[in-house]
Amino acid sequence: MAEPSEIDYDTMIPNNVDLAHDRRVLRALERWHPGYIDWWKRMGPEGFGDTPVYLRTAISVGAEGWAKFGYVKMPDYRWGILLAPREEGRVIPFGAHKGEPVWQEVPGEHRALLRRLIVVQGDTEPASVEQQRRLGKTAPSLYDMRNLFQVNVEEARHLWAMVYLLQKYFGRDGREEAEALLRRQSGAEDSPRILGAFNQETPDWLSFFMFTFFTDRDGKMQLESLAQSGFDPLSRTCRFMLTEEAHHMFVGESGISRIIERTCQAMAGAGIDDPSDVEKIRGLGVIDLPAIQRQVNLHYALSLDLFGSEISTNAANAFSAGIKGRYRETRIEDDHRLVDDTYPVMKLVDGAFKTVAESALPALNARLRDAYVVDCRKGVGRWNKVIGASGVDFRITLPHLAFNRAIGAFKGVSATPAGDLIDAGEWMRRRDQWLPTGDDAAFIGSLTIPEVEPGAYAGWIAPPRHGINNMPGDFEYVRLARP
Ligand code: BYC
Predict the structure, then answer these.
(1) Rounded to the nearest 5 degrees, what angle is found at the Cα of 66, between the Cα atoms of 65 and 72?
(2) Is 128 near ligand 1, meaning CB less than 6 Å away?
(3) Which of 178, 157, 22, 158 is nearest to 115 (CA)?
(4) 93-128 b/e with 16+ CB inside 10 Å = b?
(5) What are phi and psi of 459, to 5 degrees?
(6) How high does pLDDT run on average in the chain?
(7) Which of 165, 234, 314 to mutate to test the pocket of ligand 1 (most atoms within 8 A of CB)?
């Protein structure tokens, strides 16, 4: 089949998978489309359906210049199906089939496993759009509002990416799964999204930036592992998704960094040295660093849960089958089969944390999570540089792996962020020191009133260093109807 590198705009769905000559899949996607648009209108960004937004649309998958910028009304966004180019001669990089040619069709014996992974991945994408749907109304600037909407349309494109794989490769049950992806709903009692963190609210902009820093970074790790897959269409899909994911993490990291910068500036301006002088700091209209730390604690723990259990037969099977690899598998120097290897995993043994050598295959979730922790630490280090440069005596830290966990070996363990084990009663009494409180939510809620003048920023966040696509500081990223 021809694989043009430019996007085909002739069919309703822009694509580089030659849908024009794949009538069955094209028709299946066209049938899915009205339900999708209905979902976007019901569950996508609330109140901005007619608003022109300065968005980036993918127009090719080449390393350079894959994006086009311009004003688009979100329901008219060209959600396309884009796969990274096929690598000639690619072989399965790991597992029992290592060295064999990659699969262009679903291997029958691994069909259910593969479908499950694609459905879980697909489910997170619309979930995040649902979680963030009210935030446009309280954006701290047009720049931030535009970034939110960019993240939203791209997460929705990632849903398209997974739906394409389901429709093309999984027949009738693929179609049913594609429908179900539009039926489940973040936080819904009777049909919630599959993974825990995607049923939490994203009530304010601090939470949004935390989500894009921590949860989108889980997305990066999972996509990197799926990009290694021996099922080539999945690998190619994930490789292109990763190019978009980088911007989402930038939004999170720079968003928190700008909040921290503003807080430290305001403290210095008012001569406040003590970061725990919360009342005075909040009186300046900025977010105190301890409240930011509590958000870090919450989002980090929720994101760790997304890696599943440390020891998992599912993960071992997916690796052995050649379906889901390790983070940057091809750069690791070992036999890529792991049958006789071990991996150090932290566990609770006789009331103390100990690192235990586990069989490497079932420990793959722990291993991916460890790579995630290293990646998170780098970002947190950059935030601490901003604090350090201001002279304020405070450091943001990542809590212990056992803090506030709901999945895996530390589920139900009462550990402090420092990793001390305490009894459940004491943990509950001290909870408000560690996790966001009702007071935090009310204070942050009181700050998040919209700022919609081009070039203006709410008082609790510093302006960014650069505009999007090098646009000037007062650029109108979102054209709101003005009276
Ligand atoms: N919540 O063997 P186990 C993103 C289930 S984020 C609820 O421990 P496994 C994005 C599990 O499904 C990345 N249930 O774990 C970010 C299994 O159920 P079944 C999303 C959970 O299977 C921001 C059972 O417990 N992509 O892209 O090795 C914005 C035993 O599981 C949870 C992926 O996650 C949980 N936290 O690994 C937008 C990649 N954890 O099958 C987007 C695809 C586990 O027995 N998914 N369970 O009924 C996977 O690789 C794996 O499914 C998991 C779990 C890593 C999630």
Answers:
(1) 110
(2) yes
(3) 178
(4) bbbebeeeebbeebeeebeebbbebbbbbbbbbbbb
(5) -65, -10
(6) 95
(7) 314
160-186: per-residue pLDDT in tens? 999 999 999 999 999 999 999 999 999
pLDDT tens-place string over residues 308-345: 999 999 999 999 999 999 999 999 999 999 999 999 99
How does residue 8 score in pLDDT terms, banded at 50, 70 and 90? low
- For 371-406, the DSSP string reads HHHHHHHHHHHHHHHHHHHHT------PPPTTTT-S
3-class DSSP state of 412: coil
Q: Measured in angstroms, how far is the CA atom of residue 343 from the centroid of ligand 1?
A: 21
Spacing, Cα 316 to ligand 1 middle (Å): 14
Q: Of how many residues is the chain composed? A: 483
Tell me how far the alpha carbon of residue 153 is from its chain's centroid: 13
Closest by CA position to 264, among listed 378, 389, 379: 389
CA distances from 443 to 135, 208, 263, 282, 436 (A): 16, 16, 14, 8, 11
Token pair listed for 98: 């290592």
CB 218 near ligand 1, within 6 Å: yes
Residue 194: name the closest of 109, 83, 115 by CA. 115
Q: How far is CA 397 from CA 364, 378, 381, 414, 418, in A?
A: 25, 11, 9, 19, 9
pLDDT digits (tens, 9 = 90+) for 106-128: 999 999 999 999 999 999 999 99
User: For 213-251, what is each residue's pLDDT tens digit?
Assistant: 999 999 999 999 999 999 999 999 999 999 999 999 999
- The pLDDT of residue 186 is 98
**Dist CA 324 CA 340 (whole Å):** 19
| 361-371 average pLDDT score | 98
Task: Judge whether 251 and 214 are in contact, CB under 8 Å.
Answer: no
Model's pTM, two decimal places? 0.96
Per residue in 401-444, pLDDT tens? 999 999 999 999 999 999 999 999 999 999 999 999 999 999 99
Q: Is the CB of 311 under 6 A from ligand 1?
A: no
Sorted by sequence, the CB contacts under 8 Å of residue 117 that are 6+ apart come out as: 226, 318, 323, 324
Candidate from 151, 177, 195 with most ligand 1 atoms within 8 A of CB, to mutate: 195
